[in-house]
Design goal:
Layout lengths: L6 E5 L3 H13 L3 E5 L2 H9 L5 E4 L8 H11 L6 E5 L4 H10 L3 E4 L4 H15 L1
Parallel strand pairs: 1-2, 1-3, 3-4, 4-5
Length: about 130
């Protein structure tokens, strides 16, 4: 259980993706809090203390770009932000990293890749 006790916040409008990520991370011991868009994530993060955030880029209402920028600017967030996207163009990746994302991974991804990346990002931020 490599993520035991870690708080991971997820924002993805695809319920199946959100549920799959939640199951994968909970099996590793993480406490997972999920939402369907960037505004739900922003609200959850402002009342919590996440160890890592996983966010999609394109969602309704408030997309991942807006959420990353808001969390970095208004919450002075220091935890890693992992972007998972099906739109991993050079432009999208560059923009997400410029706004404050720590790393970007293209969907679909394998469970082991997700776990290894989250563990590494949390370890590197400690």
């Amino acid at each position: 259980m490599r993520l035991k006790g870690k708080r991971i916040y997820i924002a993805d409008d695809d319920e199946e993706v959100r549920e799959a990520i939640t199951i994968i991370l909970e099996e590793e011991g993480a406490k997972v809090i999920g939402g369907i868009d960037g505004s739900q994530l922003f609200t959850s993060v402002s009342f919590g203390n996440p160890d890592c955030i996983i966010i999609d880029l394109y969602m309704p209402n408030s997309d991942g770009f807006d959420a990353i920028e808001a969390m970095k600017d208004f919450l002075s967030l220091n935890c890693p932000i992992l972007v998972l996207t099906g739109y991993a163009t050079e432009e999208n990746i560059a923009r997400a990293l410029e706004l404050g994302a720590t790393e970007c991974i293209k969907k679909p991804l394998k469970a082991d890749e997700l776990i290894d990346t989250v563990v590494r990002l949390i370890d590197d931020s400690s």
